[in-house]
Amino acid sequence: MNDMTGAAGAALLEIDLGAIADNWRVLAASHAGDTAAVVKADAYGLGAAKVVPVLYAAGCRHFFVAQLPEALALRRLIPGAVLAVLNGLAVDEAGAFAAHGITPILSALPEIAGWRAELKRRGQSLAAMLHVDTGMARLGLSAHDLAVLRAEGDRLDGVAISHVMTHLVSADTPSDPVNARQAADFAAVCAQFPGVGTSFANSSGMFLGPGFASSLARPGAALYGVNPTPGAANPMRGVVRLTAPILQIRELSPGESVGYNGIWTAKRPSRIAVLGVGYADGWHRSLSNKAKAFFDDTEIPLVGRVSMDLTTFDVTGTKAQPGDRLELLGPHHSADALAIEAGTNGYEILTALGRRYQRRYSGA
Q1: Segment 119-171, tens digit of pLDDT
Q2: Are the C-beta atoms of residues 6 and 17 closer than 8 Å to each other?
Q3: Is residue 141 exposed (0-12), middle (13-18) or buried (19+ Cβ within 10 Å)?
Q4: How far apart are CA 148 and CA 150, in angstroms?
Q5: Are 280 and 47 in contact (CB under 8 A)?
Q6: Which residues are catalytic?
Q7: Is CATH 3.30.420.10 the classification given to domain 239-362?
Q8: Residue ranges covered by each domain of the chain
Q9: Burial of 156 (0-12, 13-18, 19+ CB in 10 A)
């Protein structure tokens, strides 16, 4: 008997908030410094308004988002916590940052100048973090920018720098020599800011060893069950379970095909289950003829093309019937496993999950 429950006809995304809190506690216990929570992109697609209060209750006091509107939406939920914005400071945003107690992460000289101007206008010193580029070549102060700051020390007057941070390029590949090079380069930069906090490791970086420790770690994906140690057992608890009911079962004869372009053809009498999940729900088109689901403990292959709203699975040989649910994500099939099938990573799998799912939260 299949015991999956949920609204008939609706795909159900179950999110275990208790598991997210436990994952944060495990990471925090392994780290000598403070441990933040990265809750950008709506807490990796799982609902920041639900996730953030649970992490705050667990003891987290540092949160990172990517954009100012994300921070403004969360500020009232975490009074007194540090709430920092990774994507920097736009020229017209400084007032909002200051008014709401949000910490900008300054990654360019014009951003530093803009923050200083706002502090001068207010007549007070406010915190900021400095982001230095040690190899990612995206955001971050360059070697030239750092040289300017050394030569013109007054550029930081009035700015209470809480942390200097950088971003690891290849933390999920421990053998990559870029990791050691970044650690050395970051240490050299931090020496220019004695007494200032440091922030280095992301989720995978927390497993690279003591050379990557800092006063503030920034795990993100690991909180949500994505494996921070690819190639090894996942040390984190699973967080999501996605199931969908079978809308119809079609009986195909050998030689008949299913879906757009007929890319899968039955080689035997086949029972094809139709599910109301498609690429509009984050079920990537690249999963066509590649992914799997589970009916109880039985692996069920996805067959044919994933379309916008529907996906088809071969349930031949099972007792599956309309109304029974297939597990798309969960204990049998993690976000990391689905990512391999889609040719992406677990981060994209989670953040792509659509808004049409019925959502159920537990463990708060």
Answers
A1: 999 999 999 999 999 999 999 999 999 999 999 989 999 999 999 999 999 99
A2: no
A3: buried
A4: 5
A5: no
A6: 40, 260
A7: no
A8: 31-224, 239-362
A9: middle
